[in-house]
Design brief:
The protein is of the alpha/beta class. It is built from 18 helices and 22 strands. It has helices at about 5-15, 15-20, 65-70, 95-100, 120-130, 160-165, 185-190, 235-250, 260-275, 290-295, 350-365, 375-390, 410-420, 430-445, 450-455, 475-485, 500-505, 510-515, and strands at about 35, 50-55, 55-60, 75-80, 85, 90, 105, 140-145, 170-175, 180-185, 205, 215-220, 250-260, 280-285, 310-315, 370, 400-405, 420-425, 460-465, 530-535, 550-555, 560-565. The strands form four sheets. The chain has an eight-stranded parallel beta sheet. Strands 7-8-9-10-12-11 form a six-stranded mixed beta sheet. A hairpin with a 6-residue loop joins strand 11 and strand 12 (about 215-220). The two termini are about 45 Å apart.
Length: about 575
């Protein structure tokens, strides 16, 4: 058992009598903080009218009368009224540092996140950005979030489009999926990418009609040919602190930061030691490009220090369904421009490398995330675990299929015996459901993020936003999981909808389980961390159609308020 879990068990035993409603024997047992209300959602079997907190721990949960015994002269008492108290939300997958970096870049998102509806909007926005920021000629201009599926032209901006914005600045725009980018001629020249540049393993340089000259659009590993704008350490620290405030504003008390280098993880560790993070950050180091020696040197932390720990490693096995680079076993119904009728995309990592390495990770007890969207990539992920176990009972490894968008029913059937946890990119039905119906046909699209089928098989699962691809809006994530309504108003796979309680479990206790932290987080129970979110209404009794509109009013982490919405916000 992990050391922080042991501590929680010991603490839980110490407060057991308190949790059962025993009156404190002396004023020294008075709580620091008490919540009272009729809408306390514990995500446990405990029914509660009040909660008592001392320091960073919950010391008692029970009736108002029971918890009144913990109120002393210095106790802060929060009367919830019609508001709801829930455990702090746990981000099951995302890229916290990318959220921070993107705060300094040009946002080219389409509605409802942004305002871009066509290629001309992109060109105009870049011109305005260059002028407003007074960016000198020759300096890199970066943007993110453009979505070809939502542009009027239904295509990516290419080098010719971006040359209209500027020929004096290298311009690099990251696709909303994070798996493609678009560059202008100056950026291609600066990167040395031309007709003689070969496609890198696991990536594609899209070409003009002549089949040679790059058109400016890069897929998967080809993106690595282009540098990112460098931030000063001081500026990056500022942006990270701003990003923590953003996460807290959505009720998140534990966030994930994946796709990191070992050196950057060390930077985060040192920063947290000097100035503790207000929320918990769990990092995952990208394993794809590490040598065997570098991978062997990676260690995961069992405890947080200053709100930070490295949770393990992440492998990236394929691409993106919205970018049409998810690796499939059967052809796309509609592939990218110029794709053959038998187009199934491709792996972004050498399959044999995954098969060779996952067994070593399991032997070391290293937690593993594996990005796999298409069913061919998911099959590879599952086969790797299956081969590594070689028929032996599965240890409690909780390896995670990140996204698992196009998982098949027969693949779900294999997961329980292998101990694999799917984490679904559950906002897809709204953001790209209409696009997926074109890409994969009605049957495959309807089974995207099959949460209900997973629940029926008693498979632990989580749901996530994958920020910064979409904002870390947990109430919208819950709403989409419950309603599965596309942008066009179509209900995508209604049989895969969750109810509100099931969706909440996936971002509280379920997500805590994914991190091996279910004894510490995810429910309101004696001995657990005092992480809470106060909502404007109880999601369990609200109209499902209005879940996304329930506001986050206040967030508490480790017993302290770290975000409070001012009236009128």
């Amino acid at each position: 058992m992990r050391s922080f879990q042991v501590a929680a068990v010991i603490f839980g035993l110490a407060v057991l009598l308190a949790g059962c409603g025993v009156e404190p024997e002396s004023p020294a047992q008075a709580a620091d903080l008490v919540f009272r209300g009729a809408n306390i959602v514990t995500m446990d079997e405990i029914e509660a009218e009040a909660v008592a907190v001392e320091g960073d721990r919950i010391v008692a949960v029970g009736s108002r009368e029971e918890i009144d015994g913990y109120v002393g002269p210095d106790t802060q008492v929060v009367e919830l009224g019609e508001r709801a108290l829930l455990p702090g939300f746990v981000d099951a997958h995302g890229h916290f540092s990318a959220v921070a970096r993107y705060l300094d870049l040009l946002d080219l998102s389409s509605p409802p996140v942004g305002e871009i509806t066509g290629v001309d909007d992109i060109v105009d926005s870049i011109r305005e950005f260059i002028e407003n920021e007074a960016i000198p000629a020759g300096e890199l201009v970066q943007g993110f979030g453009y979505d070809d599926s939502l542009l009027a032209e239904q295509r990516h901006p290419d080098r010719d489009d971006l040359d209209r914005a500027s020929t004096d600045h290298p311009i690099v725009l990251r696709h909303v999926s994070g798996h493609l980018l678009a560059a202008n001629s100056a950026a291609l020249d600066a990167a040395g990418v031309n007709a003689d540049t070969a496609d890198p393993p696991g990536g594609i340089i899209r070409r003009r009609a002549d089949g040679a000259e790059p058109n400016g659009v890069m897929e998967e590993t080809a993106m690595a040919l282009f540098p990112s704008r460098q931030l000063t350490p001081e500026r990056y620290r500022e942006l990270r602190r701003q990003a923590m405030e953003i996460y807290a504003s959505y009720g998140i008390t534990t966030a994930q930061d994946s796709n990191l280098s070992p050196a950057y993880v060390q930077t985060l560790r040192e920063e947290a030691e000097l100035a503790p993070f207000p929320i918990d950050i769990v990092s995952f180091i990208t394993a794809n490009n590490l040598s065997d020696e570098e991978l062997a040197a990676v260690r995961h932390d069992s405890e947080y220090t200053g709100g930070f720990r490295n949770g393990g490693v992440k492998f990236i096995l394929d691409g993106s369904p919205q970018g049409r680079t998810a690796w499939m076993s059967q052809p796309y119904t509609e592939g990218p421009p110029g794709a053959a009728d038998d187009y199934v995309a491709y792996p972004s990592y050498e399959p044999q490398a995954w098969l060779d390495r996952i067994g070593v990770m399991l032997e070391r007890g290293m937690p593993v995330l594996a990005h796999a969207n298409g069913d061919a990539a998911i099959e590879l992920m599952i086969d790797g675990i299956d081969d590594a176990l070689a028929g032996a009972p599965a240890p409690d490894h909780r390896s995670v299929i990140i996204h698992a968008q196009l998982i098949r029913a027969d693949q779900l059937d294999r997961l329980p015996a292998l101990g694999i946890v799917p984490s679904y990119y559950a906002v897809h039905p709204f953001f790209w459901g209409d696009w997926h119906r074109r890409s994969f046909g009605e049957l495959r699209a309807a089974f995207i993020s099959p949460a209900r089928a997973t629940l029926e098989r008693d498979i632990p699962f989580t749901i996530h936003n994958d920020s910064p691809i979409v904002p870390p809006d947990m109430m919208r994530l819950l709403s989409i999981s419950v309603n599965r309504v596309t942008r066009g108003g179509f209900v995508l796979g209604p049989e895969q909808r969750l109810n509100a309680e099931e969706a909440l479990h996936a971002v509280t206790l379920g997500a805590a389980y994914q991190y091996f932290e279910e004894d510490e987080k995810g429910s309101i129970a004696p001995g657990k961390r005092a992480d809470f979110v106060i909502l404007g209404a109880n999601p369990l009794t609200a109209d499902p159609a209005e879940l996304a509109d329930i506001p986050v009013l206040e967030t508490f982490a480790r017993g302290r308020s770290i975000f409070r919405r001012e009236s009128g916000d």
